[in-house]
Amino acid sequence: MTSILTPLIILDVQDAIDQPRWNGKNNPGYLAVIQRLLAHWRGNGWPVLHVKHDEANPASTYHTHGPWNAIKREVAPIAGEPVIVKQHNCAFIGTELDALLKGMQVRRVVLTGVVIHHSMDATVRAGKALGYEIILPADATTAVPVAGDAGKSWDAASVHELTLAILAGEYAEVVTAEALLVG
Q1: 107 and 134 Cβ atoms separated by less than 8 Å
Q2: Please, which residues have CB within 8 angstroms of residue 17's CB and are 6 or more apart in sequence?
Q3: Cα-flanking dihedrals φ and ψ of residue 182, to 5°?
Q4: Which range marks the domain in which residue 58 is found?
Q5: Which among 37, 55, 57, 84 is most buried, taking Cβ atoms within 10 Å?
Q6: Alpha helices, H only, the chain
Q7: CATH at residue 134
Q8: How would you label 54-87 residue by residue, b for 16+ Cβ within 10 Å and e otherwise?
């Protein structure tokens, strides 16, 4: 399922995700899963790309000059691994990600990161529209609770499960990390 032409993309895994605004995450082991995938990709010499969110709004935990903007040390890039900086919810909008993937002659990517119903959803949908095959390891991402305007709330596990169900098939191939590690 994976090959040298299937980059691993790590999206928005920054210190910001551990701030109180993002409390209530499901799948607390998502970071360890991403670390396993990252070690596997690096061990095979396969391409790894990091996407870092730089938010202009100073109130955001992802604020460009804020104290939590750094990529988490557990998945920090090493020499030769590109870092794509985004300012929008989608990693393809206003960035060089599409050009970089085209330059690598890539048609398929493995997407990991946070948060499944925010930037990951937007990136999956845009990537599919651009013609990429998106592989989405469900256990290498997380969700947070969602509260609607009418007062209805959904817990993070339900949000995660529903978002993956919506993306599966039409937009992405939803798998487990284990399938990628042994496949």
Answers
A1: no
A2: 25, 61, 72, 114, 115
A3: -105, -15
A4: 8-182
A5: 37
A6: 30-44, 97-103, 121-129, 156-167, 177-182
A7: 3.40.50.850
A8: ebeeeebbbbeebeebebbeebeeeeebeebebe
Tell me the residue type at 118: H
Q: pLDDT tens across 57-67, in order?
A: 999 999 999 99
Distance (Å) of CA 120 to CA 41, 113, 125, 140, 144:
20, 7, 9, 11, 13
Query: What pairs with residue 50 in β-bridges?
Result: 10, 83
Q: Work out the average pLDDT over 157-175.
A: 97
Q: Compute φ and ψ for 20, nearest 5 degrees.
A: -55, -30
Q: Which of 177, 136, 142 is nearest to 159 (CA)?
A: 142
Q: Please tell me the predicted confidence (pLDDT) of residue 74.
A: 98
Q: Is the pLDDT of residue 94 over 70?
A: yes
The whole-number average pLDDT for the span 124-152 is 96
Token pair belonging to 114: 């946070």
Cβ-contact 169, 138 below 8 angstroms: no
Question: Does the residue 65 lie in any domain?
Answer: yes
- The residue among 14, 96, 106 whose CA lies nearest residue 61 is 14
Residue 1 lies in a domain: no
Residue with tokens 């390891």: 137
Structurally, the chain folds into a number of domains equal to 1
